[in-house]
Amino acid sequence: MARPLRMPLPDGTLASYMPAGRPLVPPKQPPGFNRIAYSAAHVVADPLASAEPALGSAIDWDATLAYRRYLVGLGLGIAEAMDTAQRGMGLAWPQALELIGITLANLSDLPTTPVACGVGTDHRDTAEVCTLDEVVRAYLEQLHAVQRLGGRVILMASRALARVAASPDDYFAVYSRVLAECERPAILHWLGPMFDPALAGYWGTADLAAALDTVIGLIAAHASRIDGIKISLLDAAMEVRARRRLPEGVRMYTGDDFNYPELITGDSQGHSDALLGIFDAIAPAASLALGALAQGETLRFHSILAPTVPLSRTIFRAPTYAYKTGVVFLAWLNGFQDHFVMLGGAQGLRPLTYFAQVFREADAAGLLRDPDFAVTRMRTLLALHGITG
User: Fold this and answer.
1) 161, 185, 215, 350: least CB-packed within 10 angstroms?
2) Domains of the chain
3) Long-range contacts of range 177-181, CB-CB < 8 Å, 24 or more positions apart?
4) What's the confidence (pLDDT) of residue 53?
5) How many other C-beta atoms lie within 10 A of the C-beta of residue 198?
6) Strand ranges in 222-331 using DSSP code E only, listed in sequence order
């Protein structure tokens, strides 16, 4: 690293930055964890495809699968075809189903690796779906397709249901009918409007306490068909309240990309397992920390993850739905893909000041695995924005 980078600060002024250059060394073998840990995984776009990004993008299947095997090699499970994979923001249902099938087939030699697959209604989220029966049919089309492939199921929140439902009872009725056809216990997903504004008022109310009552009632009524629930509200206190009300045997999977360390460690009344988009970006730190926690080294767990929290809060800053851009940016900096191109052209959703901040915070957390290589790529991005030297 011969010379520092000239990068913008949040106020747009330029300042020199010399990377620390102290990358974390990930474990050579997948460690044993005492928490279930899924990483929602991003997809790698094919930059040479002729398809117009606004009309649908192609996927680089080799790079996409290689990244999943990398995550699995660190002991993490895969949450497939979820929000991190740009589901509903570039990844349409036909591609999502293909992705699920390819992932399941190509990880079949790793039988202990958990893979859970997103099932929703995104192929029917347009105004043509106007009844609860149509929402159920849309869910079941995807559910049956994933189950035919042998996939475990994550029941994703439905934009169509949020639009059509008139009361909490409507949500209860729809989920009850879908859960009845799940062949294995499913994971529910409560995704907040900061991740998808179309999901405002999910569960039939904007009152989170009342929504929680509906969710807990649903889970209690169908506990044998529910493995757990992932809550993505960026509200640690709300998650803890929900966790303490879950029936025995139903897991809480934290989806809180702001407060994950303390939610995973938990307290005397329980802990959260993990199903996190940020684990895609901080996979080495997540693996090392979870391994330490399994050995009873709670202080080391927190010392590893503490520097990742500012990074995660930057990646997931408002508008939160654009967080995928930061995740893919780090994958590019770390050489997991040869380009910084995303489905639908989503690499353009964040300003240069955001990327500079992500770079600094990833470096501070030891997440630039080859700092010299990352600096070279960062210089390229800076030059594209007119910053040289």
Assistant:
1) 185
2) 31-320 (3.20.20.70)
3) 177/136, 178/136, 178/139, 178/140, 178/143, 179/155, 179/222, 179/225, 179/226, 180/225, 181/140, 181/143, 181/144
4) 82
5) 15
6) 226-232, 251-254, 273-276
For residue 352 the two structure tokens come to: 């240069």
Q: Which two tokens stand for residue 141?
A: 């089309």
Contact 366, 10 (CB under 8 A): no
Sign of CA dihedral 319, 324, 328, 333: positive
Element (H, E) at 138: helix 132-148
Cα–Cα distance, 305 to 383 (Å, whole number): 32
Tokens of 381: 């991005």
Backbone CA torsion sign across 255, 261, 262, 266: positive
Phi/psi of residue 284, each to 5°? -60, -40
| Inter-residue contact 361 to 314 (CB < 8 Å) | yes
- Which two tokens mark 285? 């730190």
Q: What's the pLDDT score for residue 57?
A: 78
Helix then strand then coil, in percent of the chain rounded to 5, is: 50, 15, 40
| Parts of the chain with a pLDDT under 70 | 1-2, 111-112
Pairing outcome for strands 14-17 and 5-8: antiparallel
Q: Is there a contact between 371 and 21 (Cβ–Cβ < 8 Å)?
A: yes
| Cβ within 8 Å of residue 32, ≥6 positions away | 75, 291, 294
How far apart (Å, rounded) are the C-alpha atoms in residues 383 and 389?
Answer: 9
* Residue 309 confidence (pLDDT): 98
pLDDT (0 to 100) of residue 50 = 87
Among 44, 48, 40, smallest CA distance to 342 is for: 44
Structure tokens of 149? 């492939």
φ and ψ at 37, to 5 degrees? -135, 105
